[in-house]
Amino acid sequence: MDKNELNDEVEIDLSQLLKLLKKNIRLIIILALVGIIIAASATTFLISKKYQSQGSVLLKADVVNGSLDSTQVNTNKMMVNNYVKLLQGNNIQDQVAKNLNITSAEVRSSLSITNTTDTQIIEISSTTVDPGLSKRIVDETISVFTTLIQEKLDVTNVTIVDQPEVNPNPVSPSMVKNVIIGAVAGIVISLGYLLLTYLLDTKIKNGEQAEQYLGVPLLGIVPFFEE
Q1: Residues 88, 104: contact at Cβ < 8 Å?
Q2: Model confidence pLDDT, tens digit, residues 143-166
Q3: In this protein, which residues make up the domain named Tyrosine-protein kinase G-rich (predicted)?
């Protein structure tokens, strides 16, 4: 390896880098705190809070001779996926939007329809910036759904298990999550800045660095005395 190749190499002395980080620990802490403050402020004042309301319906099986009809239970489990697709379809959601005098896009973006595996329960939830609206969307979705399957499919075994309620507690944004992200971002920025400063610093600080840079043994060091 010749002198030019040696000079072109970028070497990182971990001990020197750790000393640099230790020396600038206050900067790292300050930027982490700044990240926390920015994240907390944005979460409180800039990001809209969202509220969720949820309800659920059950496909009830008939009781035969004091016990549930297992055949109908299995049939209901197979039908659940069809009902989920029906709830996710435009017909029901457009009707809900019309009844509530809001747009179909608002209904679609807020609704979540799920079914727990191997159950006959369909869970319906709505998440919006208005807790009252979230409840009304779930209420109306259940109402339109049950009416539709009764009138069009002659299905009468759907029972409301959980009635939706107004939830005053926002489900997002998460203050804790955002504050952690802000702190991590502040630390990453400070570390990136210090690493860049270290890599761009071409000053020779000791004899060992002089030997590495020049590629020749060091014969002596001239001490510096301040006047």
Answers
A1: no
A2: 999 999 999 888 888 899 999 999
A3: 149-196
- Which SS3 state, helix, strand or coil, does residue 172 take? strand
Residue span(s) of the chain under CATH 3.30.70 come to: 51-162
What gap in Å lies between CA 57 and CA 50, rounded to an integer? 24
**What pLDDT is stored for residue 30 in this prediction?**
97
Backbone angles phi, psi at 18, to 5 degrees: -65, -40
Q: What kind and span of H or E run contains 161?
A: strand 158-162
Is the dihedral angle over the CA atoms 197, 201, 207, 210 positive or is it negative?
A: positive
pLDDT value of residue 73? 62
Which CATH code is given to the segment(s) 51-162? 3.30.70
Residue 142 has pLDDT above 80, yes or no: yes
- Provide the token pair at 75: 């049939």
Q: How far apart, in whole angstroms, are the C-alpha atoms of residue 128 and residue 99?
A: 17
